[in-house]
Design a protein that fits this description.
The protein is of the alpha/beta class. The protein contains twelve helices and 20 strands. The protein has two domains: 250 residues, Alanine racemase (TIM Barrel); 147 residues, Lyase, Ornithine Decarboxylase, Chain A, domain 1 (Beta Barrel), CATH 2.40.37.10.
């Protein structure tokens, strides 16, 4: 089975002015049907002795998104106590969460963590310090642990900043410490029943495949109690035409074959776990902005739009590319990069946001220079829509920079009805925690 969607969900251009009229611009747009289909595809991934899919909620932590995803049967991967508490507040029980965090919970946070673990949260130990601190509790309460192993192999991320296997990455218990950790665990009678490796985000799918073999090697060598092997997230999607996406069916088939071979060699049946974020939501999302100004210079023609890095920092942070569509005020699609639509002659425009930051653009090269985008020239008042923005946009943006307010979010439901899922931040909310002090 080939994934049916490997690019951004199709933009219904006629909806754009309607959404802008109701909720203003900029605004985030999500497509429930797309998210549900992604979940179904992931749950249908081939496997040997069972598959458990967790949604990496850091990709988009909005409660409606969490509810859609968990209703489809995915559990959650949380990166902080705050994320776990947020998911709980959205109605997800702790028994459906795993915590993989850089935090070292002490004092009140420690008590909170213990309560979460007692309620069924799976704790994925990510450092020797974390293990030392939790081992006594795990022993007393007979809690089985998961362990994140640093794989000691680079190249799993789409960029250096998303690689979690190189010597520059600090995530997980390093291989050199694994024998110490397992010896301590054996002495205490604490079990690591799950081994977890996340090699990075959006890297070459072949690297994901290589990790399967490497990780099964760790399980065989160091973890006799493990009944589950988590291959992490990182499944690549294609936001732009020509990008190579992860064929999850082929990856599942490969994993199943290697897990069966592991059983033949060891007699042990392992359940497979994955925790994608990007794959679930990235291509379900659009950001709708309005063109508010034009500046035609001798060197470059600029379009200024009313939303940029404060809604989507991936271009500035990673040099990531997102497809751009131009929609007229009457809802006609003028051009779309992903669908290769151009209703007339296209021209290069540098597209910039409203922030006082030279890198506030939807398209930048590796040196931070603005790269012009080929589009059909719009008028001021028309819309510029950015695709592939469902993941790591509203959950990972420098919101409130220049005191811009966090944009609202709308979801297109299964019956095509549009519903507001998050209100626009108010000016009062931006400043509400600032205190009046005597000067
Ligand atoms: C431990 C872990 N798991 C899963 C993910 C999700 O990655 P992606 O969104 O690329 O699938 C991440 C991303 O940073 C991660 O750090």
């Amino acid at each position: 089975m080939t994934p049916k969607h490997f690019g951004p969900t199709k933009l219904d251009a006629a909806l754009v002015p309607e959404i802008a009229r109701q909720w203003g611009t900029p605004v985030y747009l999500h497509d429930q049907a797309f998210i549900e289909r992604s979940c179904e595809q992931l749950l249908g991934m081939p496997n040997a002795y069972g598959l458990h899919v967790r949604y990496a909620m850091k990709a988009n932590s909005d409660r409606t998104v969490l509810r859609v995803v968990t209703a489809k049967g995915l559990d959650l991967d949380c990166s902080s106590l705050e994320e776990a508490a947020r998911a709980f507040a959205a109605g997800v029980p702790y028994s459906r969460m795993m915590l993989t965090t850089q935090q070292v919970p002490l004092d009140e946070e420690r008590l909170e963590l213990e309560e979460m673990i007692r309620s069924g949260l799976k704790y994925n130990v990510c450092s020797m310090t974390q293990f030392r601190l939790i081992s006594g509790f795990a022993k007393e309460n007979r809690v089985d642990l998961s362990i994140r192993v640093h794989p000691g192999a680079a190249g799993g991320g789409e960029s250096q900043t998303r690689d979690t296997g190189s010597e520059y990455s600090c995530f997980g218990v390093h291989l050199k410490d694994v024998p110490t950790a397992t010896a301590m665990a054996a002495e205490l009678g604490v079990r690591f029943t799950q081994v977890h490796v996340h090699i990075g985000s959006g890297g070459d799918p072949d690297k994901w495949r290589e990790n399967i073999d490497r990780e099964l090697g760790f399980v065989a060598e160091y973890f006799p109690d493990a009944d589950t092997v988590s291959f992490g997230g990182g499944l690549k999607v294609a936001r732009m035409p020509g990008e190579k996406w992860a064929d999850i069916t082929a990856l599942g088939e490969y994993a199943a074959q290697r897990i069966k071979a592991f059983k033949e060699a060891t007699g042990r049946e392992l359940k497979m776990e994955i925790e994608p974020g990007t794959f679930v939501v990235a291509n379900s999302g659009h950001i709708i902005t309005r063109i508010i100004d034009k500046k035609l210079t001798n060197e470059m023609n600029f379009l200024i739009v009313d939303g940029g890095m404060e809604l989507l920092s991936r271009p500035l942070l990673y040099g990531s590319e997102h497809p751009v569509a131009i929609v007229r005020q009457d809802g006609a699609l003028l051009s779309s990069e992903f669908d290769a639509v151009a209703t007339g002659a296209s021209k290069p425009f540098g597209i910039v946001g409203r922030c006082c930051e030279s890198g506030d653009s939807v398209r930048l090269d590796g040196d931070g220079n603005i790269v012009p985008v080929q589009i059909v020239e719009p008028e001021i008042g028309d819309y510029m829509v950015i695709g592939g923005t469902g993941a790591y946009s509203e959950s990972m943006s420098p919101e409130n920079y220049n005191s811009h307010r966090k944009a609202p979010a709308v979801m297109k439901r299964l019956n095509s009805e549009l519903v507001l899922i998050r209100k626009k931040q108010t000016r009062q909310q931006v400043i509400q925690n600032e205190l009046e002090v005597e000067l």
